[in-house]
Amino acid sequence: MELFVFIVFQLLIEVQSNNAPTVHVSPAVFSESRSVQISCETPADITVKHCDFTINRKQLEIKVSPLCELNLTGAEVLRQAGGKSPQSVNITCCYTIKGRRKKKSSDSVPATVTVLDQLQKPVISVTEYENHLGITCKIPLSVRADFTCSFYYEDDAILVNRDSQWRSSVEKHICVFNPTLSDLLRRSVKSRKLSCDYSLKTEPDIRSPHSDTHIIEALPQARLSASASVLRESDTVELSCGNTEELKMEMCVFNINGRETYSNPSFSCQLSLNASQISVWSEDQRSSVRITCFYVVKKGQFNVLSPPSDPVTVTVQISSSTTALVTMTMTMESTASTSTSTSESTQIYSTAADLNSKTNLSTSRTIQTTSDSTVHTSTDQPTTTKHTAASTPESTTKTETSVPYVTHTEGQLLHFCLGSSD
Length: 422
What we know:
The chain is of the alpha+beta class. The chain has helices spanning 2-18, 74-81, 181-184, 275-282, 320-345, 352-359, 410-420, and strands spanning 22-26, 29-31, 35-41, 48-55, 58-59, 69-73, 87-97, 103-104, 111-116, 123-129, 132-139, 147-152, 158-163, 165-167, 172-177, 191-200, 214-217, 223-226, 230-231, 236-242, 251-256, 259-266, 270-274, 288-299, 302-305, 312-316, 375-377, 399-401.
């Protein structure tokens, strides 16, 4: 029996729940001078005599037509709730069934509306990390609504607009803007004054007062000094990075030719470079490099970077002997390459006298030929000669000598070239 009663009770609750109305409000947030439209949605298969509305469980003394719709200003809502703005209230509705017996439905699930009068001033805060900024505009309202924030420069020029985000941890709305320090501060601008305000998305013409002003100041530009601008091959240049206000620097970074791969962090803010390093880093820029630096200071828990210094140019002066050596090396490489190509495609003919002249050999050195080599005079009568190289070129005048051809290897040709340059 007890089980039967419990089941019947649960069924009654379920039927009653299924027949409960639904309350709708629009807009959910509004000012005292604006109106809110409230409607009570009833089941379609039920004939409704009228609807009743309650605000914070207090029934309104207003009779509503069978359409179950109601318009109230923000001031009327506050008067019925017995409070002042800003205030959030819960609105519910129920309906009475038309018939002989007056039977009321259960209450709807409450809908929350918020009445605002004058919006309170927001709070602006800024955090800096390296070259990035975190600018936050905090809205001092716990009401659930959609807001839009505007961030301003000192001259009331709008910097950017951002939609609000609800932070449940603090039950507040915030708007966040994350520019870089370079976006706000150019070299000609040393500081910026920032502020923010907010408005309801549903009523953009109603704005809060501006927040207090927050000033962002740039660090002094880094100053780079070099002990020399022109180096000899054995020299070293000493670089020093600093600032004009004697700020405590955590570290400095030197950039060579604007490339991060050549960045050199230094906790002493000093750097030594020798001529060899500069020559390597200069690549095809004729042993000349451009160097800049910046320094890092600590603000609170974050590191902040300074603007980069003006560039300093350092050049390695190559001596004339080094230039001659480089030129000679290039010439030898070119000659060897040309000789190799020639030896592969042609046969080189040379007399014994020419070979002695090019190699600085003594006149006693002989060229070995075959035993049937002969020398013919220009006359008709054959003349036999010894196979010995002539002591002077003049001895072969008016004599046609049959000289065997020699095919020289690449190593012999390079030896000849080097011998002739002595």
